[in-house]
């Protein structure tokens, strides 16, 4: 059996490259809203806002800034480890 002699000619006219990244692979989702930290929180996504940075506490847990702000209205503790929520100094 002989291989096919005619090869299709394929020409790339244009291409689009995309990349997805996370802040920390071990903690890539917000524990409050369950959305990826690399994407806006649900409130920002509904409002078509793109800026919703993650914030890290002194306990090293990360959340969307708006998610933890809403959480802290009802208390002062990290939702994961129940230690006092303090934003990590950079």
From TrEMBL:
State the pathway, as annotated in the record: Protein modification; protein ubiquitination
Question: Where does this protein chiefly localize?
Answer: cytoplasm
Q: Does the keyword Plastid apply?
A: no
**GO CC terms of this entry:** cytoplasm; nucleus
Q: Which residues form the RING-type domain?
A: 30-81
Q: Where in the cell is it found?
A: Cytoplasm; Nucleus
Q: Which UniProt keywords apply?
A: Cytoplasm, Metal-binding, Nucleus, Ubl conjugation pathway, Zinc, Zinc-finger
Q: Which PROSITE patterns match?
A: ZF_RING_2
UniProt xrefs under Pfam families: zf-rbx1
The cross-references to InterPro entries, in alphabetical order and at most eight, read: RING-box_E3_Ubiquitin_Ligase (IPR051031), Znf_RING (IPR001841), Znf_RING/FYVE/PHD (IPR013083), Znf_RING_H2 (IPR024766)
Classification via PANTHER family: RING BOX
**Record protein name field:** RING-H2 zinc finger domain-containing protein
* GO MF terms, alphabetically ordered: zinc ion binding
